[in-house]
Amino acid sequence: MGNRFPTETKRVTIADVAALAGVSKGTVSKFLGDGDYYIAEATRGRIAAAIAELDFQPNALARGLVRRRSQTVGVVVASVLNPLYPEMITGIDEVLGERGYTLIFGSTEGSSVKEADVIRSMQQRQVDGIVMASVTLQDAEVSQLVDAGLDVVLASRHMRRSDLVDAVIVDNEDGARQAVEHLIAHGHKRIGHLAGPQNVYPFEIRREVFERVMRQAGLPVNGLISVAESTRQESGAPAMAELLGADEPPTAVFVANDSLAIGAIEACAARGVRIPDDVAIVGFDNIWVAHLHGVQLTTVDSRAREIGRNAAHRLLDRIEARWNDGGHPHPVELRMLPTRLVRRGTCGCTPEPPDPLTGSSN
Amino acid sequence: MGNRFPTETKRVTIADVAALAGVSKGTVSKFLGDGDYYIAEATRGRIAAAIAELDFQPNALARGLVRRRSQTVGVVVASVLNPLYPEMITGIDEVLGERGYTLIFGSTEGSSVKEADVIRSMQQRQVDGIVMASVTLQDAEVSQLVDAGLDVVLASRHMRRSDLVDAVIVDNEDGARQAVEHLIAHGHKRIGHLAGPQNVYPFEIRREVFERVMRQAGLPVNGLISVAESTRQESGAPAMAELLGADEPPTAVFVANDSLAIGAIEACAARGVRIPDDVAIVGFDNIWVAHLHGVQLTTVDSRAREIGRNAAHRLLDRIEARWNDGGHPHPVELRMLPTRLVRRGTCGCTPEPPDPLTGSSN
DNA sequence: CCGGTATGGGAAACCGTTTTCCTACCGAGA
DNA sequence: TCTCGGTAGGAAAACGGTTTCCCATACCGG
C-alpha cells in the first residue's frame, strides 16, 4: 500500500504559526476568521508576521469539516461544448469569485446516471449548494435533493411547479412568442418547429408556445414539428432534414435552441437549401456564434451570463441566510429575465447594426 | 453571528452506521475503503445494510483531511469562452470522472492576479494537483509551485525549459510550419502573421516558425506581423485591421489561433475584404466553429480534447505514483501530439470532404 | 476597597474520517 | 499442551482547523 506520507513536504499548520508567534492555536484562528474577537495590536502583528514568514495557507478541508460548510458550490451542466454553458459558467464564476466561493464542476453529457453520480460526488464533497443547469433529472428527483437539505438553484430551466426550488430563467414564453410572431410577420404560412428533447421543461414550453401562437394565427401545425434527440448540434441536422423532406416543407423554422439551429443550418447547406430564401430560421439562446458574419442567426437572447450571475447570487444568498438569519430560509422564487429577439439574417431581415464582436450582446 | 447549526438536517456519520450495524467506526471505515482488510461476510452484510438504510454518504472533507489528499484536481483556464477550453475541459473531465476525481474549476480571464488567487484557493482546498491551461503565469512562478510540492501539468502550453514541469502540447513547430508552407504553396508572397500575446510560449513559437519558414522561402517578414493583446476574439479584429491597412497589405495571413482568426474574419467582413480572394487565412486550433459552413476556416488541429485527456492522465499518474511508488515521482516529460493542417475554404482550397458536424475532427 | 465591565488569550472539545496497534479466537502443527 | 499464523474487529490517536468556555488582567465608578 505504499508509504503513508511520501515525498510530501511537511505542511505548515496553524500550530506552527502559533508557536512562532508565541500564542495559542485558538488565537491564530481568531485572527484568521473575521469574527470580532479581541486581539491586541501587538499580537496581531506577530501573528501576521509569522504567517508571512511561514507562508501559511489554512487548510480548507479542516476548516470546512468543523464549520460544516465548504465555501464551495457545485455547478452541473449538460455539456460544456454548447457555448451557452460557458457563458453561463462565466457568469457564475464571476459571482462565486467575488463572494469567496470555489466552483466545483460537473458535466453530465446528457446521461442521468452520470448526473446522479456527479451530484452525489458533490454532496460528499460537502458543497454548500448546487447550480443546476443540467436537464436530465426529473422534477421529483430534484425536489428530493432539496428536501434532503441541499440548496439548489436551477439555471435556465425550471420545474412545472415553480414553488419547490429556486430557478432563474429567461422568459421562454415571451421569447418563443416573439420568435414565432416574427416569422409570421415575415409572411410565412408554413412554419415548422425543431423542438428540443421533450423531457426538458424549457423546450416543452417553447414548443407549446409555438403551437399556441400558430393556432391563434390560424396556421397549421400538423406535421411541422420535429423533435431532436438531444441538444447537441449533430442532432439538429437529421431533425431539420426530416422537416425539409416533408411533402410540403415549411418555409420557416423556429428552432428550440441555437446549438440545434447551427446543426440545422449545416443540414441546409449540405442539401443546397438557401437561408433565408428557401427557408428562414430563428433560433433561441443567442450564443456568440450566432452573430458571426457567416452565420447571422436570428435568435432570442437567453442572457446566459446574467442567468449565471443571478443564479449564483440567489444560491449564495440562500446559503448565507441559512447561517445568518437564524435558520429561516428565503422563500422559493422563480426569477424570470425578460428577453428580446435579436434580428439578424436568417429570418430574412437585414441585420441589426453590426453588433461587433462583443462576445455576448446583453 | 447566528446559530451554529441551523436548519441543517442532522448528517449521517460513520458512527451512526457503526451503531446500527453493531460494529465500531473503524470497521465501517475499513469496509468503505478498498484496502484488503479482513471483514466477515456477515459483518459486511450488516454494514452494507446499515449504509443503505441510512443513505450514508461519507464526508469527503474528513476523509481528505486524514488521508491528506482530496481526490480533487484543479483546472485553470484563461477563459472558458474560447471554445478551445471547453473541448479541453471535456477531455479532462472525462478522465477525472473515470478515475474518481473531482474537478475544481478556475478561470483567470487573463489576469495574473486572478490566476494567482485561483491557484492559492486551490491549494488551500488541498487539490491533489493542477492542470494549467492558462497562460499568464511566468515560467519561474510555475516552477516555484512545482518546487513547493504541487503537482502540475501544463496543457497546451509549456515552458522554455521543458524539464521542469510536465506538459502536454500539440506540435506547434510542425503545425505552424504546415500552415505557413501551405500558404506559400498557394503562391502567396506577402504573407502576414497575426501573432498572439508574446509572453505566451506557444504563440512565441508559432511566430518564430512563421519567421523562419518565411525566411527560408526567401520571403519578406518585415512589417507583416501584428500582435494581438489577448487571445480574445475581439482583439483579432484591430490586429487584422492593422495588417490590412498597411501600404502593401498581405495577401494571406497566418493567425495565431482560431479565436483571433474569427475576429480577423469579422474584420474582413466589416471592410468588405473577401476571403480567400483578397486575403487568405489560416488559423490554429481547429475549434468546432471553424468547420461551420459559414466559416470554413483552414486551420491546424490543436487536438484539445486529447490534450485534455493526456494531461489529466499524466497528472493522475504522477499523483498516484507519489503515493504508491514509495515516493519516487515520475520523471518530467514533455508530450507532444502530432498535428495536421485541416484544409477548408479560407486558404483558397476547396474544402476537404464535408467533415459533417462531428464537433471535433480527430 | 470592591464589584463590574471591557480586553486579551489559553485549554480543550469537536468536526468525521482513516489507520495503527492490539487483543482474541480458532485450527493446525510440533 | 503450546505456539503460531490467519481472521476479525475494537480503541484511540491522528488530521488541522474553530469555537466555547474560562481565566486573567486593567480600569472604572462608587
From TrEMBL, chains A, B:
Gene Ontology molecular functions: DNA-binding transcription factor activity; transcription cis-regulatory region binding
SUPFAM superfamilies per the UniProt record, alphabetical: lambda repressor-like DNA-binding domains, Periplasmic binding protein-like I
Protein keywords: DNA-binding, Repressor, Transcription, Transcription regulation
Source taxon at top rank: Bacteria
Protein name: DNA-binding LacI/PurR family transcriptional regulator
PROSITE patterns for this protein: HTH_LACI_1 (PS00356), HTH_LACI_2 (PS50932)
PANTHER family: HTH-TYPE TRANSCRIPTIONAL REPRESSOR PURR-RELATED (PTHR30146:SF148), LACI-RELATED TRANSCRIPTIONAL REPRESSOR (PTHR30146)
The keyword RNA-binding is assigned to this record: no
Location of the HTH lacI-type domain: 12-67
Gene3D superfamilies assigned to the protein according to its UniProt record, in alphabetical order: 3.40.50.2300, lambda repressor-like DNA-binding domains
Pfam families on file: LacI, Peripla_BP_3
